[in-house]
Specification:
It is built from 6 helices and no strands. By secondary structure, the protein is an all-alpha fold.
């Protein structure tokens, strides 16, 4: 695999990551999104699939490649929090349904999900910065060869 192909795959993984973040935001906004298309586990998203397969095969010797793993895992932990807030059991007790307490809890969960999305966005920005650094390092290494 040549440098151009490695960079193309890296950019495709980056694009998939950005699409994942957009779908997560759409979910929070209440738009119709198939929640299965926003995987909770870091290894199940398109970016994670690339990272733990082709990426690892070709780039595992680069520190900048390894620097991506921790924020990517943290991003999925944040998303798991959001997912649980949005899709936790919404039945509530009989009393809370009569008094409207479950609606208050849903509103509180939505507020918390929006807050967590801000954290998710910051982590995503960190990942994008690290991906840009990785691409720069790949280009630098290729230029030396």
């Amino acid at each position: 695999m040549d440098v151009k192909e490695i960079i193309d795959r890296l950019r495709n993984a980056k694009k998939a990551h950005l699409g994942w973040v957009t779908r997560a935001h759409s979910l929070i906004k209440g738009e119709a999104v198939d929640k299965e298309k926003i995987p909770v586990l870091p290894t199940d998203c398109i970016f994670g699939s690339w990272y733990y397969s082709d990426g690892k095969k070709k780039l595992a010797n680069l520190k900048t490649f390894h620097d991506i793993e921790a924020p990517h895992n943290e991003l999925h932990k944040i998303y798991a929090d959001i997912f649980n807030l949005l899709f936790e059991q919404k039945k509530g007790s009989f009393l809370s349904r009569i008094t409207g307490g479950h609606k208050k809890q849903q509103k509180k969960n939505m507020e918390m999900a929006n807050k967590r999305f801000n954290d998710l966005q910051k982590m995503s920005d960190k990942i994008i910065d690290k991906l840009d650094a990785l691409e720069k390092e790949i280009r630098t290494i290729a230029a030396r060869q």
